[in-house]
Amino acid sequence: MPNYISSDLSAAQIDDFMRNGFIRIEGAFSADVASLGRKRLWAALRSTHGLLPDNPAGWTQPVVRLGFMTDPPFVEAANTPLLHRAYDSLVGKGRWQRPSGLGTFPIRFPSANDPGDTGWHVDVSFGTDHPDFMQWRVNIKSKGRALLMLFLFSDVGPDDAPTRIRSGSHAAIARCLLPHGETGMTLAELAAANFADTHTCEEVLAIGTAGTVYLCHPFLVHSAQPHRGKAPRFIAQPPLLPCADFDPSLPPSPVQIMIRKACGME
Question: Mind listing the pLDDT tens digit for each residue in 187-213?
């Protein structure tokens, strides 16, 4: 086993994370917290869009996006002891910022209409002051992002618009980014490179019960999909923010080791 930072996750979990690009943690936060979060999200949907949980006739849009939420259920969900230990294990103790809430929330509703946002992508993390999000950037050091995270605030089954994940795609993205150094690549450039031809990767659905969290490598290729179920789907998809850029004087984290292995440096 590699000589990385001491871990509260099992060796098998960390190996799965480095090989597949994600781990799934069931019961990462409680069902009660998830229920309180849904109530707060419905309140926001009512205030901003006039949507009600008992009026499906009003659910005419396939997706409605809510921003960053700092209400107590979201702060609690992001900061359970279990998740803090997992952040330490994957990113390194003292190397990530304590989440002050969660967001964004793409709330997906049952619909036959195309939501228009189902393309494969990676989440870019710097250069976000550019008005065209396709010009936002990501680099080999994953500047500005320690993890991609998916917080399930409702039960998500195969028909409930689960996020699609290309398992193992993070390695191909690392190799694609390596020649571009600190400057990195824009989302448009990665799209032109067909996201490093990751179409051959196994596709996994991010399903689970409310309270499940997926902790993902920041280079993982993923996509949304239409909702073919019956009840609205509530998830948050925040980054875990780093305290600073990778420090070569510190023991490498699993996030860093995976990048080095993919690029033939380990």
Answer: 999 999 999 999 999 999 999 999 999
Tokens of 127: 């250069």
Report pLDDT for 4: 37
Residue found by looking up tokens 């499940």 in the block: 212
What's the mean pLDDT in 101-124? 96
Domain ranges of the chain: 23-52+70-109+117-262
Which CATH topology does 23-52+70-109+117-262 take?
A: Jelly Rolls (2.60.120)
pLDDT level of residue 5 (50, 70, 90 thresholds): very low
Distance CA 138, CA 95 (A): 19
What digits encode the pLDDT tens for the residues 76-100?
A: 999 999 999 999 999 999 999 999 9
The answer to whether the CB of 192 falls within 8 A of the CB of 14 is no
pTM of the predicted protein model: 0.95
Q: What is the DSSP string of the chain?
A: ----S--SS-HHHHHHHHHHSEEEETTSS-HHHHHHHHHHHHHHHHHHH---TT-GGG--SSEEEE--B-SHHHHHHHT-HHHHHHHHHHH-TTSBPPPSSB--EEEE---SS--S----B----B-TTSSSGGG-EE-TT-TT-SEEEEEESS-B-TTS-PPEEETTHHHHHHHHHGGGTTT-EEHHHHHHTHHHHGGGSPEEE--B-TT-EEEE-TT--EE-----SSS-B-EE-PEEPBSSS--TTSPPPHHHHHHHHHTT--
